[in-house]
Amino acid sequence: MTHYSVFSLLKNTLGGHKGWPRAWRDPEPKARYDVIVVGGGGHGLATAYYLAKNHGITNVAVLERGYLGGGNVGRNTTIVRSNYELPGNTEFYEHSLKLWEGLSQDLNYNVMFSQRSVINLAHSDGQMDAYARRGNRMRINGIDSELLSRDEVREKAPYLSFENARFPIYGGLSQPRGGTARHDAVAWGFARAADLRGVDLIQNCEVTGFIREGGRVTGVETTRGTIMAGKVGLAVAGSTTELTRKVGLDLPIESHVLQAFVSEGLKPMIDQVITFGAGHFYISQSDKGGLVFGGDLDGYNTYAQRGNLPLIEDVMTEGVAMIPALSRLRLLRHWGGIMDMSMDGSPIIDKTPIDGLYLNTGWCYGGFKATPGSGWCFAHTIARDEPSPYNTRLRLDRFARGHTIDEKGSGPVPKKH
Questions:
Q1: Which segments in the chain show pLDDT lower than 70?
Q2: In angstroms, what is the C-alpha Rg of the chain?
Q3: Which side of the chain, N or C, has fewer Cβ within a 10 Å radius?
Q4: So what's the pLDDT on residue 126?
Q5: What are the backbone dihedrals phi and psi of residue 294, each rounded to the nearest 5 degrees, phi first?
Q6: Which residues sit opposite 276 in a β-bridge?
Q7: Side by side, which strands form the sheet with 281-285?
């Protein structure tokens, strides 16, 4: 396969770009693999890549019921950060961010990672105190953070509504190393790199059931036939409970739709990722000029990738309260993704109680930024049958043990997302 470089680009430019090979193969599924990863999104592709790279396990298949990158990895607002406070999340997301920083070189594919900073706005003295506490915790854990005054925020983002009567801006918390990446490039980069190491990427292959022998999962039934495996890992986001139900496994997971939006293209306006501390609104500007933003879940359980108008109105209202100029923009498009919401708002990367079956789920709002870290840790868990140092606190049994990681502070109970 061609190595991407300035020289290969120059060579193919002179040849009219007719000499590029396929980015990855389209193989027929084999009868048996050492590992099957169900889900051809960012997490599944990253898991397959790190299984091959870090553990030498190359007899791996990624099974995707549609096309690679057609799920949540292509349906998000592309934000990358590690500004977490609680043990379990801090070490995991910082590990993921460090992987992001070298990902383009590692994959030999430009994922367009832009460390433009993430700024969380504060709208009260109490919120400034909370951000100071979080920032200090981040620094204790070796994670960059800066507590910004009102004037410092104004210097970085003069377009914000600082005098809003209900939501005056008191300051904010910044993580300079945070930013954005190109979501489809991430999927394509991991797919290409995994294929190069011998992984089979099987598209249009839906898993319809599991094969069990003596209580152990030993394969899967698919729309393309039976495929046997030594181990099966699930990385299917909001569809997790659909599959685990087939093996009688109940999980502390709810599926919700989360909408995202993009405006018409503009000249450069927003240099950072900005979040509205008085509500749930986040915005950045893409390289093509569109403003990319989102907000809360729609609030009802669903497996449908479509939203509703009340939530659109809610998101637009928050956006205009923070940036009044948004009221003059036209919305170009919006879409929905199925979120796998855990009861404490933190992810699960672990073996299941069923031998041979492994679980990667519960990403809530944080799935995209976790992509490389998730794949790295899930691959370690599958290969070694034990968690890595970065996901020891993200195990499934934490709910039974009472060791939840309640980053949001709403308690580990349903319908509080």
A1: 1, 409-417
A2: 21
A3: N
A4: 96
A5: -165, -175
A6: 281
A7: 146-149, 171-175, 118-122, 273-276, 281-285, 290-301, 253-265, 331-342
Q: Interior CA angle at 366 toward 363 and 370, to 5°?
A: 90
β-strands 200-202, 60-63: how paired? parallel
SS3 state of residue 56: coil
Asked whether 154 and 163 are in contact (CB, 8 A), the reply is no
Type of residue at 73: V
- Quick check: 257 and 336 in contact, CB under 8 A? yes
Q: For residue 235, give both structure tokens.
A: 């990385």
The structure tokens listed for 297 are: 């879940």
Q: State the Cα–Cα distance between residues 60 and 194, nearest whole angstrom.
A: 9
Is the CB of residue 323 less than 8 Å from the CB of residue 399?
Answer: no
Instruction: Summarize the chain as % helix, strand, coil (round to 5).
Output: 30, 25, 40
Q: In 16-170, which ranges are E strands?
A: 32-38, 60-63, 79-80, 118-122, 146-149
Q: List, for residues 107-155, the tens digit of each pLDDT value.
A: 999 999 999 999 999 999 999 999 999 999 999 999 999 999 999 999 9
Q: Which two tokens stand for residue 259?
A: 């909408």
